[in-house]
Write a structure and sequence with these properties.
It contains 22 helices and no strands. By secondary structure, it is mainly alpha-helical. It has one domain.
């Protein structure tokens, strides 16, 4: 059954069948070979989706879309610009900082890239940054959308890893790695800008006056006031979860209500037309994710029935019984998978296989989940399937091959970050432990 499962899955991938259907068809073929009644297919898919924590995904998707359509991007950009706009490489650093802010609201990498890229890429080019460099900065900043909580891939990992994992703990554990990656990207932008003289384009007198006003203490205070309400959403979500006020699923519903009130009654940017568009977009995104998760539940059941995680664990132990070597091999595997598979699909395929093995090696499942998320986030900026590259290049009007050279320093920095997060687990685990 295991041989049929993986061979048919690979064949379906090659001929271009979508990931969710590939997992379902491969599982059915394996079950036919093993003479398992096909009514089990419906039972396993239904039992996978019949989950209260799973309801957090459509709510967080809807909350993120409501905030995106509420026009908060410019408010967050103004806040970041008031804080670091005059530093060397200022607008590049603003891009990363805004990515952090927006990531704490959207939970999506592509949404983060699209929402702020359409504003900041042209602004960076106007300020004297090369267009390929500006596009690269936006692409790598967008990956923070799945690392800084709330994160939809973290929810998927918690529900598919095959062991009891707290979504709230995963959310909190993502804060340390998110800050590390953001800080390293800002330093890289600073040194590259200083070395190459990026961002030195002379502004007009009116633009200089506007920038001076924005970066003054009064301007910073005004920018903070304008952005404070959107930035309160992650505080409400994480504070409510860890304060025991509501569960992660209930927090997602609270986020929807908060985003709706903000857009409809405070900023008054939502109307009947764009609310219908938001509901349509959110429903489509939810349906795609639920198809993947439902078929992944069936796929995982076949894996467990065939004891594939045990076989994988035995293979890793035969290679080496060192957790260091195991994590190195896992990093290589995840980086390779991230280049060819969508993040959610990679998680639902590999989390049920690798997480039990990691636990056998004595690795904390929360730490392992962060390792998986960070590796697959890098896959969002690596060709050929890097979704952030496509979104950023579409905004900039460039081809992917035109920005690869400017991406190289960022790839190096991200690899160093991965190694630090992998072999220094307290980067991820200290905050959950402290809050407990």
């Amino acid at each position: 059954m295991a041989g049929i499962l993986f061979f048919s899955l690979l064949a379906l991938f090659i001929i271009g069948i979508p990931v969710s259907f590939s997992m379902g068809f491969a599982s059915i073929l394996a079950m036919i070979q093993g003479e398992i009644p096909l009514q089990v297919v419906v039972q396993r898919v239904f039992s996978t989706l019949d989950s209260f924590p799973l309801m957090a995904i459509p709510f967080f998707i809807l909350a993120g879309n409501l905030m995106e359509y509420s026009g908060i991007s410019q408010r967050l950009i103004n806040l970041a610009n008031s804080m670091v706009g005059r530093v060397t490489g200022g607008l590049g650093i603003v891009t990363v900082l805004t990515g952090m802010f927006f990531a704490s609201i959207s939970g999506s990498s592509a949404a983060t890239t699209a929402a702020i890229g359409s504003i900041l890429i042209p602004a960076m080019v106007k300020r004297g940054f090369p267009k390929p460099f500006s596009t690269s900065v936006q692409a790598v900043s967008g990956e923070l959308g799945v690392i800084i909580p709330p994160s939809i891939p973290m929810i998927i990992f918690a529900l598919t890893a095959g062991t009891a994992i707290s979504i709230g703990d995963l959310f909190i554990a993502g804060i340390g790695p998110g800050i590390l990656i953001s800080g390293s990207l800002m330093l890289t932008i600073y040194f590259l800008s200083k070395k190459n003289g990026y961002g030195l384009q002379q502004l007009s007198k009116e633009e200089q006056e506007a920038e001076a006003q924005l970066t003054s203490w009064s301007g910073r205070l005004q920018a903070f006031r304008q952005a404070i309400l959107p930035l309160l959403m992650p505080v409400i979500i994480l504070g409510g979860i860890y304060g025991g006020i509501f569960t992660p699923t209930e927090a997602s519903a609270v986020a929807v209500g908060y985003a709706f009130v903000l857009g409809m009654f405070v900023y008054r940017t939502l109307n009947r037309k764009n609310i219908m568009e938001i509901l349509r977009t959110s429903s489509l995104s939810t349906a795609i994710i639920m198809l993947i998760i439902g078929n992944a539940g069936l796929f995982g059941w076949v894996l467990t029935a065939e004891k594939v995680p045990d076989l994988v664990a035995d293979w890793f132990v035969s290679v080496s019984d060192s957790p260091i070597v195991f994590l190195l091999l896992v990093n290589l595997l995840l980086l390779l998978a991230g280049m060819f598979l969508e993040t959610g699909a990679s998680i639902v395929i590999m989390a049920p296989i690798l997480t039990p093995v990691a636990i056998q090696f004595g690795i904390d499942p929360i730490h392992f989940g962060i390792i998986m998320i960070v590796n697959l986030a890098v896959g969002m900026v690596t060709p050929p399937v890097g979704v952030n590259l496509f979104v950023a290049c579409q905004i900039a009007g460039l081809r992917i091959e035109q920005i690869l050279k400017s991406m190289l320093p960022f790839y190096l920095v991200l690899l160093i970050d991965i190694l630090l997060i992998t072999y220094l687990p307290q980067i991820a685990l200290w905050l959950p432990a402290f809050l407990k």
